[in-house]
Amino acid sequence: MIKAVFFDLDDTLLWDQKSIKEAFVSTCKVAEERYGLSPSQLEEAVRDTARNLYSSYETFPFTQMIGINPFEGMWGNFLDDEENFRKLKEIVPIYRRDAWTLGLKAMGVDDPNFGFELGERFPVERRKVPFVYEDTFSTLDRLKGKYQLLLLTNGSPDLQKTKLRITPELVPYFDQIVISGDFGRGKPDPSLFEHALSLMGLEKDEVIMVGDNLMTDILGANRAGIKSVWLNRHGKERNEVIPIYEIKHLDELFEILEKLNETVKK
Fold first, then answer.
1. Which of 100, 124, 204, 207 could form an S-S bond across to 118 if both were Cys, CB 3.0 to 4.6 Å?
2. ∠ at Cα 73 (173, 172), nearest 5°?
């Protein structure tokens, strides 16, 4: 009998990639106005420099393990009281400045002051555009009261709570919110899923995990023996990780839940 649904947050319930994209568009427009640069080409250049810089810092193995991507590093403050987060907090202002300065340089503009300005502008723009998928609230409305709900998200507690603060309607749906940075390990580590189960007082066969990322949500659920539902909204190719179920929209979840619970009744 399925008693609970575990949900990933980013690009499952919140459309984080769209929020990042819109923040880039707004920030790059400032550079277009100032220097006549192509916003799309600048975005590409900054994304490249950001990835390269991010992987060069001593915090990179930690951010990979907890699950914090380079573009979260471009707007997060990381005010968490843990040694690696404290290091990250020191690094990110320099990282933001350098990512934009080097991106501008790749476009033929050598202006570190403007790089700093854009680096500080991007987090402001990102906070303005929290996108939620159109089926998120209707799905949670139908589930609430029938199933226990847990949010299982990778990332910095400070940053993930910021995302939830700017979309406050999400929080009341969940009985528990588990953030990898609080636990000390991220998805796909099965111990994080086991921790979530213990918080809910449930067994692994009483839960399904819904997420968009094969390498974190689905792999982790599979390793923990939890039924996995891959939410493939954008028609991605599957890799070697095989989910138990695959859906394109959240409302397809109800058919899966019905079937699973009918099987138990029989």
1. 100
2. 10
Helix axes 112-128, 16-35, angle to 10 degrees: 140
User: Could you report the per-residue pLDDT of 131-166, keeping only the tens digit for each?
Assistant: 999 999 999 999 999 999 999 999 999 999 999 999
Both structure tokens of 79: 């005010």
Helix spans in the chain (H)? 16-35, 39-56, 60-66, 70-73, 83-106, 112-128, 136-143, 157-165, 180-183, 190-200, 219-224, 253-265
Q: How far apart are the first and last CA of the chain?
A: 11
Report whether pLDDT(266) > 60. Answer: no
Torsion 51-26-160-189 (CA) sign? negative
- With 0-12 CB in 10 A as exposed, 13-18 as middle and 19+ as buried, what is 33? exposed
CB 133 within 8 A of CB 15: yes
Angle, alpha carbons 203-63-181 (nearest 5°): 45
Please state, rounded to an integer, the average pLDDT across all residues of the chain: 97
